[in-house]
Amino acid sequence: MIAAVGLGALAGGVVFLLVLHLARPRPAPLVELARFDAVHAGGSAAGQAISAEPASSPATGLPAAVGAWLARQLTLRGVTNTSLRQDLALTGRTYEQVMTRKVLFAAGGLLLSLLLLVVVPAAVGAALPTGAPLIVATVLAGALFFLPDLEARSDATRRRAEFRHALGAYLDLVALEMAARAAPAEALPAAAKVGTGWPLALIRDTLYRATRAGRDPWAALGELGRRIGVTELSDLGQLIALVAHDGARVRSTLTARAQTMRRHELANLQGQAGKADQSMQMAQVLIGLGYLLFIGYPAMVAVLNF
User: Fold this and answer.
1) What is the pLDDT, as a whole number, of residue 287?
2) What are phi and psi of 294, to 5 degrees?
3) Same domain flag for 258 and 133
4) Do 35 and 72 belong to one domain?
5) Which of 17, 77, 121, 140 could lock onto 126 through a cystine, CB 3.0 to 4.6 A?
């Protein structure tokens, strides 16, 4: 009995740690920007976008060592995980931190499932087939191993949508600045100073560092697009490089790209509205079926009992 209580307490502790890792508080945008500047200024390649994670101390000990070792072995074997790294560039986590979370989730799922599948049947006097607990525990650990990937992809998808929305307005502002006889080197940072959101703050930071390094600002923006997985920005850098000598063509290219991005955003919003409408229709059908069942069940029971 005491052993069962101890194992139950251990299982509850594992569940509590998993929930604590999943439900983290969100910091203010200014705190995120300050963390990004601090990491980027230190020369780390991890903080290539404004962080969406709170300023918490990284994991230490055996899980961090195993996560760093796993990340290093995957890199040495050519497993780059480009899409995951692009997602992490928008969420502010490092590749090693995600590998550490993978190890923690997998180990926690394996331990928790083994405890539940061994202790509970033993407590109720039931017997499971030989090897069944190990198979179920392995499957659950594998599913939890990929949970940080899904979390990073969900956060990055939301932040990319925000970045694309701000990018369309930014390109229009750059075109207006150039129409007012401003050179591209002046129009790009001037347009980025208009907004206060994190996408324009990220563009301002990229342009500032490109200017200090003596780099072409369009090339820096294209590299930013490749790093965070925004193809519209990376393709725009390549297009502008072809017509950089002609200000009128640059302005027309910016306007056309902004219009294209707005059309794509409108199409996505219409698609989301269509999905929501279908969900509402399905809910209405289910409510109608439930109401018919509620009305017809007493009559059917009365007929059968007659």
Assistant:
1) 92
2) -65, -40
3) no
4) yes
5) 121
Q: What is the pLDDT of residue 7?
A: 56
Determine, yes or no, domain membership for 156.
no
Distance between CA atoms of residues 16 and 202, nearest Å? 35
pLDDT score at 53:
42
CB 133 within 8 A of CB 114: yes
Residue (of 91, 99, 77) closest to 27 by Cα position: 91
In a domain, 270, yes or no: yes
Whether 114 and 170 map to the same domain: the answer is no
Long-range contacts of 45-50 (CB under 8 A, 24+ apart): 46/88, 46/92, 46/93, 46/94, 46/95, 47/92, 48/89, 48/227, 48/228, 49/89, 49/90, 49/91, 49/92, 49/159, 49/202, 49/227, 49/228, 50/92, 50/198, 50/201, 50/202
Domain end call among 118, 145, 172: 145
pLDDT at 182: 72
- Which pLDDT score is estimated for 140? 85
Rounded Cα distance, 278 and 226, in Å: 35
Same domain? 132 vs 188: no
Please state the domain count of the chain. 2
Token pair of 282, please? 């399905």
For residue 128, give every residue at least 6 positions away whose Cβ sits within 8 Å of its Cβ, in sequence order, or none.
117, 121
Structural domain that includes position 18? 2-50+57-145
For position 33, what pLDDT does the model report?
A: 56
- Would you state the pLDDT for residue 49? 40
**Which bin fits 61, alpha (ψ -120 to 50), beta or left (φ > 0)?**
left
pLDDT at 69: 82
Q: Is residue 260 part of a domain?
A: yes
Enumerate residue ranges in the chain where pLDDT < 70. Answer: 1-61, 63, 120, 122-128, 130, 243-244
Residue 150 within a domain: no
